[in-house]
Input
Amino acid sequence: MKTIVNLILVSLLTVSVNMLNAAPSIHENKVIDEKKASKTLEEAIEAFENVMEDPLNSIPENLIKESEGIVIFPDAFKIAFGCVGGQGARGIAMIRKEDGSWSNPFIVTFGEGSLGFQLGIQSSDIILLFKDRNDIMEIVESELTLGGDISVVAGPVNRGYSSSTDVEFDAEVYSYAQSKGLFAGVCLHGGILSYNKDVNDALYGTYFVDMDEIFNEIETPYNEDISNLIETVNRYGE
Output
């Protein structure tokens, strides 16, 4: 009996050691999150340019000038099979500070589940323009549900006209998307925006970086990737 117990204990110990060896270390997780942050920033720039360089469906530049916040989700995906579907993405959020400049970004995630018969796969570059910066700042404190906590509507586009077209900012959030896939469009209602703690900590090299640090204490732009992001948004919204 004692021999059997010892064998069980040895087996459990072996399994535990193997699991520990297979699990990423804290350092490895940090490196992974740093890569995620860098990739998200680079892809956000590309996504914004993709939308703005569309000759028929780009965002009117005066709306970018008037917006107090922006969220960019590159390659947001939606997948559905049978009666269950969902969509998700990782992106960036920035606010326009009191002096009119754009802040350092923070990393946000987007998630949504849906029911109903559907079939297809879709990848979209999504841009959200916020009329009030305070709505974006709430994401850090709690999740923000589009169409629930805040209304979101499809934004007006240039449609080939001059970028100086006078368009009023009449919604809390305007959404824009450039999509590829089998779905006809992108539905953001019910989508949840949340703060990605681990990737933000990795981006700014600290533990639980808070909103005040990102916007007011950390040098803006914090690094070259962020500098390129802010320059890109400014280029289309000056």
Q: What stands out?
A: Helices lie at 2-22, 26-52, 61-66, 133-141, 197-204, 211-217, 224-236. The first helix runs from residue 2 to 22. The two ends are 79 Å apart (CA to CA). Residues 26-236 form one domain.
